[in-house]
Recover the amino acids of this structure.
């Protein structure tokens, strides 16, 4: 069974450019999460969806960040315009509404470098 | 104050040693607790849940002290393959949001 799929795995872009990160959650999962990980701030939740509906986007740093989930099998995180401080690893994770123990399954991440 | 705090380490231990990590959380209403493991340049993965009565999974023992808002992970007979970052994770009352600690890095040496 395929896990969470993310693309691209690596992205290098120049400041001011638009960046789009993509995620395919595990089939059947109800929840999708976008995280950002840096050395300084650790793993931070940016936004999460339940049944394709955004539930909490309080972690989105600024208006330059936006996320969509047009259907149950696809989500995007867009940064426009990108800045060097956006450089980080971005993880997508998915989960069922309830499991015991509860578990989020993470994708391999997208390593973003903004120069 | 961070919601979930951990000593970042690194903890450098020889093979076969016993090592313990601690974690504190600030929200007394937190419901569920976990340890995740993250290998270098990889994604986090669930290691084990932490139950109030304490629980064991092979060489790993997790304990929770709700009164002190404190979680621990004990690794016995450390292996080289245990080298990783261990993330303390807390789940709130509502929704399925997880809050991650900054992680504790473990390096097991031959």
């Amino acid at each position: 069974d395929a896990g969470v799929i993310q693309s691209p795995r690596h992205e290098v872009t120049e400041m001011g450019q638009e960046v789009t990160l993509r995620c395919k959650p595990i089939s059947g999962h109800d929840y999708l999460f976008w995280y950002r990980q840096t050395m300084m701030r650790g793993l931070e939740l940016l936004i999460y969806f339940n049944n394709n509906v955004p539930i909490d986007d309080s972690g989105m740093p600024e208006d330059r960040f936006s996320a969509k989930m047009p259907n149950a099998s696809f989500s995007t995180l867009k940064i426009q315009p990108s800045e060097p401080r956006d450089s980080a690893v971005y993880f997508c994770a998915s989960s069922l509404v309830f499991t015991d123990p509860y578990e989020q399954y993470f994708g391999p991440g997208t390593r973003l470098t903004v120069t | 104050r961070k919601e979930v705090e951990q000593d970042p380490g690194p903890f450098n231990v020889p093979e076969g040693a016993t090592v313990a990590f601690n974690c504190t959380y600030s929200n007394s209403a937190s419901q569920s607790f976990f340890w995740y493991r993250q290998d270098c340049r990889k994604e986090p993965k669930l290691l084990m849940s932490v139950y109030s009565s304490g629980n064991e999974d092979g060489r790993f023992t997790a304990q929770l002290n709700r009164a002190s808002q404190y979680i621990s992970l004990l690794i016995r007979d450390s292996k080289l393959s245990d080298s990783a970052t261990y993330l303390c994770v807390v789940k709130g009352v509502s929704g399925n949001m997880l809050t991650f600690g900054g992680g504790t890095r473990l390096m097991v040496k031959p």
Remarks:
- The CA atoms of residues 16 and 81 of chain A lie 4 Å apart.
- Chain A has a mean pLDDT of 95.
- The interface with chain B takes residues 31, 33, 42-43, 45, 48, 50, 55-56, 91, 95, 97, 101-104, 106-109 of chain A (CB under 8 Å).
